[in-house]
Amino acid sequence: MVSRVIPVDPFDLVVFGATGDLANRKILPGLYRRFFSGQIPEGARIIGAARTEMDTAAFRAHARAAIDEHVGAGKRNAAQIEAFLNILEYVPIDAMGEGGWNELKALVRPQMINAFYFSVAPALFGPLAERLHAFGIATSQARIVVEKPFGRDLASAKVLNTTLAEHFDETQIYRIDHYLGKETVQNLMAVRFANILFEPLWNAQFVDHVQITVAETVGVGGRGSYYDKSGAMRDMVQNHLMQLLCLIAMEPPYHFDPDAVRDEKLKVIRALQPVSAADIVRGQYLAHRSDDGKGHQPGYLEDAENPDSRTESYIALRVHVANWRWKGTPFYLRTGKRLRARTSEIAITFKEPPHSIFDEADETWRENVLVIRLQPNEGMNLKMMIKEPGPGGMRLVQVPLDMSFAEALGEDGADIPDAYERLIMDVIRGNQTLFMRGDEVEAAWAWTDPIIEGWTARGDRPQGYDAGSSGPEDALMLMHRDGRRWREIRE
């Protein structure tokens, strides 16, 4: 199976913060890969804008270094790189002042599709939006892309939305969450709504529980002071895990249309029940010293440079969706730093059959489980019970029906674009389906804020957990008291 590449119309894409880390790791390499695949048409231009003083030649050299570092050797074609670099321009700009804006206006062609990527701190979103209009650069057809965090609570999210709305219509604002650009996340919607197989079973009558796990092996070193003001709840649960929960729990939209999909996601967020203190586990990873005593990995408190920090690097929650479809079915969410393996997955565990015709005296019954792997090795896995081969009676064994995209789609079809690549191309197309709407962001904060305020008022301290483990012991008990257990964290 060969994946199809559908070119977009010519465009001008302005990347504010073009010399920053995100642009270096994701945006510029991703745009090159789309160019290499033939998706970026002749006549398109990418304009870098940042406070760094450099000319276009220096910016092209910067982009070449980013491509060399972050693009695989199989796509680093000298002629293609040179052609891509030739569509790059650069303007030094003062986001808070007047410098560079007239030069940017001279470069942006109003007759083209115009998109402006705000790869900058949220404090600069307002000034950038204001100056794009003040200097007559952004038209009524322009699109802006804003990175998370979308505020740090409901009040700040409302201020941010109001600021952007002063200069841009909601249809022009693309709030990007790269998890929604992952191939497997979109395939989740296809599996649910393009097949009759699962949707009739996708409810509390047949689903025992759902687990959503996003585990990381890295700590917060290098960004500890920033992370300490955020924590796992704000950094991951309020956006990434919330979006995955919505796609699992949402009702079928009337059409695969941006507002239809986002309307159904919003209903899920508004149906989330408040979470009690007993259904929350928070943790901080501890320092680790190797057995020979020579190697040392700092703990969270050391990485955060705050010995009295009460910010969580791990959180697990039991969540309920108060509607007819999911009444009584728990959703278990967990995410953390410095865990055993880097993995992101959604596991839908179905209930046992109401009656077994088999002799289970010597068997441990296992449920059917549909596992959607987001990383690494994107794909899906359905665990089923079958007869173990061989004579000697009916012995049951659980086996996987495994679909790795890399294996199922073949060498050509497995060339899966990075999430940022897909989402930026969706911006150029004007498709907002995979981007969050303002009311969706505010609803998520309205649910999250009381949880954070609760543990702050109680003075709760996160529980320590060993680096390289599966998280705090209390997280295991969160499942065990329900007669369930977490899936093993492994790549």
From TrEMBL:
<feature type="binding site">
    <location>
        <position position="148"/>
    </location>
    <ligand>
        <name>NADP(+)</name>
    </ligand>
</feature>
<dbReference type="InterPro" id="IPR036291">
    <property type="entry name" value="NAD(P)-bd_dom_sf"/>
</dbReference>
<dbReference type="InterPro" id="IPR001282">
    <property type="entry name" value="G6P_DH"/>
</dbReference>
<dbReference type="InterPro" id="IPR022674">
    <property type="entry name" value="G6P_DH_NAD-bd"/>
</dbReference>
<feature type="binding site">
    <location>
        <position position="235"/>
    </location>
    <ligand>
        <name>substrate</name>
    </ligand>
</feature>
<dbReference type="Pfam" id="PF02781">
    <property type="entry name" value="G6PD_C"/>
</dbReference>
<keyword id="KW-0119">Carbohydrate metabolism</keyword>
<feature type="domain" description="Glucose-6-phosphate dehydrogenase NAD-binding">
    <location>
        <begin position="14"/>
        <end position="187"/>
    </location>
</feature>
<comment type="pathway">
    <text>Carbohydrate degradation; pentose phosphate pathway; D-ribulose 5-phosphate from D-glucose 6-phosphate (oxidative stage): step 1/3.</text>
</comment>
<comment type="similarity">
    <text>Belongs to the glucose-6-phosphate dehydrogenase family.</text>
</comment>
<feature type="binding site">
    <location>
        <position position="337"/>
    </location>
    <ligand>
        <name>substrate</name>
    </ligand>
</feature>
<protein>
    <recommendedName>
        <fullName>Glucose-6-phosphate 1-dehydrogenase</fullName>
        <ecNumber>1.1.1.49</ecNumber>
    </recommendedName>
</protein>
<feature type="binding site">
    <location>
        <position position="178"/>
    </location>
    <ligand>
        <name>substrate</name>
    </ligand>
</feature>
<keyword id="KW-0313">Glucose metabolism</keyword>
<feature type="active site" description="Proton acceptor">
    <location>
        <position position="240"/>
    </location>
</feature>
<feature type="domain" description="Glucose-6-phosphate dehydrogenase C-terminal">
    <location>
        <begin position="189"/>
        <end position="487"/>
    </location>
</feature>
<comment type="function">
    <text>Catalyzes the oxidation of glucose 6-phosphate to 6-phosphogluconolactone.</text>
</comment>
<dbReference type="Pfam" id="PF00479">
    <property type="entry name" value="G6PD_N"/>
</dbReference>
<dbReference type="InterPro" id="IPR019796">
    <property type="entry name" value="G6P_DH_AS"/>
</dbReference>
<keyword id="KW-0521">NADP</keyword>
<keyword id="KW-0560">Oxidoreductase</keyword>
<feature type="binding site">
    <location>
        <position position="51"/>
    </location>
    <ligand>
        <name>NADP(+)</name>
    </ligand>
</feature>
<dbReference type="InterPro" id="IPR022675">
    <property type="entry name" value="G6P_DH_C"/>
</dbReference>
<feature type="binding site">
    <location>
        <position position="216"/>
    </location>
    <ligand>
        <name>substrate</name>
    </ligand>
</feature>
<feature type="binding site">
    <location>
        <position position="182"/>
    </location>
    <ligand>
        <name>substrate</name>
    </ligand>
</feature>
